[in-house]
Structure formats: structure tokens, C-alpha cells
Records
---
Amino acid sequence: MTAAMYISDFETRTLTPRQKAWDIAATVCDPEIPVLTIEDLGILRNVQVTETGKVTVTITPTYSGCPAMDAIRDDLKAAFAKEGYEDVEVNMVLAPAWTTDWMTEAGKAKLQEYGIAPPSGMSTAQRHAGPIRLTMAVKCPQCASLNTKELTRFGSTSCKALYVCQDCKEPFDYFKVL
Ligand SMILES: [Zn+2]
């Protein structure tokens, strides 16, 4: 980390350069699930602004090889260009690997409204660290029934599995716990 610029709220009563840059980065949405921002998903890991105004954004892909990352990189640069930032670097960090535990509660609520069941339960890493938890039932985003069944392990994208609700009979995507 180079000399990042931090101005306290006490001095300026406005957003620090880092907060301002973070807010710009946080407007970028996931190309596969446009209702979720990269902040909602926990993809956005860090934003730094140097004294010369160079912005460095650090993102962690949801899973390796996800083609959405190229689109996110382009969208980040475009979002900053629109706000007058010319020197923007997007770094991809693969470790520690992204897990659905990083998804924010707001993000999970938005997913459910969008008709995708949010990941339920904990990732493998979390399970190993804490007490043993049983896999939770997947809740139907339409009628909230827990009487659901997996149809295929891989739905419209490899992040999701296709489920069907046995009460309202509606099929839906489930964002798998990773
Ligand atoms: Zn249902």
C-alpha cells in the first residue's frame, strides 16, 4: 500500500477521497444478476486513492473463470471515467477465495425479491471453523415454502442450481453456497 490519502470527516465534513471512490465502485452491478451491486455480492474488497488521485480497486471473483469479471472490470473503469477519474487500476485477488458468506444481508434480500433464492447456510470454510451445521432447506422465493427440490445442480449459470417449489410448483434459481 502506497501513501493513501485520508482526510477525516472532522476536518472536511464531506466524504474522504477513499469513501467517494468506494461509492463510485459500489454502483457497479453484477452482469449476471443486475439487481446486485458488486458491493452486495462482496466482490468489492478494497478501494484506495493515492495523493495523485490514482484509484486502485480490488475485486475477488465469485468463482475462478467467471466471465463476468471482465465485464465488471470494464464497468468499473467506465463508472470512474464518468466521474472524472482517469487513472484507475482494477486488481483481481483470488485468495482468500470468495464465499457466499461475503454477500451482504441487503444483497440477499434483493436476490430474494428478484426471484432467486439466496444462499442459505454456511460455506464449507465457515462450517469447518465453527460448530457443525446442517444444510438448511432452500426457501421458495415466491411463496416462502421450504418444500423445495433440486432439479439440476447447474442452472442458468454455474453459480446457481435450478429448484422447483413443490407447493406453488414454480421453478426458481438458487444461488448456491460456495
Ligand atoms: Zn413456492
---
Amino acid sequence: MSLLFSPIQLGNVTLDNRVIIAPMCQYSAQEGCANDWHMIHLGHLALSGAGLLIVEATAVEADGRITPGDLGLWSDDTEAALAKVVQAIRRHSPITLGIQLGHAGRKASSRAPWDGGQQIPVAEGGWIAHAPSAVPHLDSELPPRALDAEGLARIKQAFVDSALRADRLGFEVIELHAAHGYLLHEFLSPISNRRDDAYGGSLENRMRFPLEVFQAVRAALPGKTLGVRVSATDWVEGGWDAGQTVAFAQALKALGCDFMDASSGGVSPRQQITLGAGYQVPFAQKIKRETGLPTMAVGLITEARQAEQILQEEQADMIALARGMLYDPRWAWHAAAELGGQVKAPQQYWRSQPRDQKALFGEIRTGQR
Ligand SMILES: Cc1cc2nc3c(=O)[nH]c(=O)nc-3n(C[C@H](O)[C@H](O)[C@H](O)COP(=O)(O)O)c2cc1C
């Protein structure tokens, strides 16, 4: 029996299978508002048969966007724009929907990757970023402004407000973005956090703000399936590492975290990453083993049997894919065919079921959950 195509309980939500579409920034929104691109992009991924589709890093305030094109959820306008996309998906797909909520911290005000990704000067429409400390990501960049007590309170509230909007939109799963060198990760890592107040220095102090954010969102949405994506290591000597990640995950678990999503890197240009198939899986395994929390593995997992083996060996509970899903949006269908699993497919596409795969598509009709 395929584990990849068996259900999993995450908080109050049961996913049909353990194939997760990882959050992927599209840098294509206008003033934070979703548009036709998101309808097409998320619409096609909603037909993928994955157990969970996590919408891209969505900014909780305008200044928390990585690029001016980031999706946002900080106002009635941004909420209404995303509502159109979510409602269309709901009409045509039974997929479970999640959203990643984030704040770019010192990596805000950047150009889209296809425009080079550099910091945008204020004179060219950029803005001054906020971060734990006034330390830029790159020496060449304009330093961010260190957050004061008022700024911390504002951002914490922004996470809560966006989470409430996400809940109202009908997202069943919320993931807080504490990875890739963005704001919450910047608090965790001693590389970016040089504060000498209660939010910097010791591990306990560096975890304080991300935990406060988690706790505030949890308090606002007690029954919501809520998880956290972490960078399990900075890949820099003396930076954030797997041991600290486990301490963070344990603290999150005590506050009611439903799952962890184990990524890595992004806080320092000095990172030395050894890339390879499933290179981040050991981090998921460590978090899972030492906390017992349901954990997603992500990063260069591209093959159905590789994904299945990770689950069979209890290295992770779910498998998230990003680039592989863009390359082959029917990855889950093909993996189910290979592993003898089943996926939900739209009835309009049922005739595509291969002759020798009569059980591939579960009996599900449009709009039926
Ligand atoms: C186009 C693109 C956009 C991404 N945007 C996000 C994002 O919004 N949030 C995030 O946590 N990771 C983001 N990532 C990282 C992916 O979620 C994933 O962790 C990474 O690509 C490794 O998985 P893969 O080897 O399956 O692509 C992005 C990756 C890609 C390729």
C-alpha cells in the first residue's frame, strides 16, 4: 500500500494524500492583489490531485513584501482579490487549500528574480525594510530599520489579521513562514539578530518573537490547522542549526502547532549548501523524531519512489514539491499511477485515465469533497 497516497490528519483537517504543493512566490500581484495570473496558476495546480496546495508567501503588511509583486492579505482589497481565486477553485476542485503567511523583513523591497533580485532603491519605488537589527542581508544594501516595541506589536497584529482573513476566505491550513531569511527566521538566527533586548542573544530570546507571533495567531484561531516552515539550518558556522530548530519546534508544539515544514538556508550569502536529491530530508527526520510533530520534507524530491521511500522509512510524514510541480503539474497523477494510489481528478478529465489504470481516479464529482 502506498503511504504517499494514504490520508493524513493535520489538526482538524484530513488530507487525501501526502503530496503537498509547496508555496511558490509568483511576484505577479498588483498592490498585493491576486489577478488573472493567480487564477490560472492556482487554478491549474488545484487540478493536480495533491493533498494540499499551499499558496505562495503572502505578505501580512505591504512593507513585508519581498517584491512589489508579492501577494498580500493586509486589506479588504487584497482579501477580495484572493476571494475570487479561492471561490473559483472551490467551485471546480476539492483540493485542500493552505496559505503561507510571511513578512520579508530585511529582504523586502527587492526586484523579482527575473529582474535580478537586487534591492530596489527608495528613489526607484522601493522602501526601507524592517528587521530585528539594522544589519543588511548584503553589505552593499541599504540597512533595514531595527524594529522597536511598537513595530513588533504592529507586525504581530498583522499576522493575526491576515490569518483571520485567510480563515474567512476558507483556507483550511495556514503556514507561518519562518524560513529562507525572512523576518521570523531573521529573529531566530544569530546572523541577522544582533539585538541586546529580550528578543536577541540567547536561543530563548531569539525564539521569543516568532513564538509570540505563533501564539497570537493560535489564540485568534484556536481550531485552525496551523504549521510553521523553518529553515532548519543557515548552512553557516555559528548560525541557526538543526539542534535549535528542534528546540523551536518543541516550543511550537507546546503552543499548539499542527505541523512543521523543514526547509533550509536563505539568511546569509555565506551559506555553503551541499545540494543533492532529498538534501533536506534529514532535517525533517530529526524534527519528526525528536518532537513527534507531523513533518513535511521538501527540496529536490522529484521521483514517486523516492517520495514513497522517505515516508516508508519514517523520515517525514508528507512530501512537498515546488519546481517539480511546475514542471509536471500532473506529478501526483503520475506518482499515483506508479505507486498504485488514487487521486481525485475533475470529471471533465476522466477520459484521460490510462486503460491499465482503471482505479487511478477516485469517484469524485466536481465540487464534491
Ligand atoms: C518559483 C518558486 C517560488 C518559491 N516561493 C516560495 C515561497 O513563497 N515560500 C517558501 O517558503 N518557499 C518558496 N520557494 C521554495 C519552495 O517552496 C521549495 O522549498 C524549494 O523550491 C525546494 O523544493 P523543490 O526542490 O521541490 O523545488 C519557492 C521556490 C520556487 C521554485
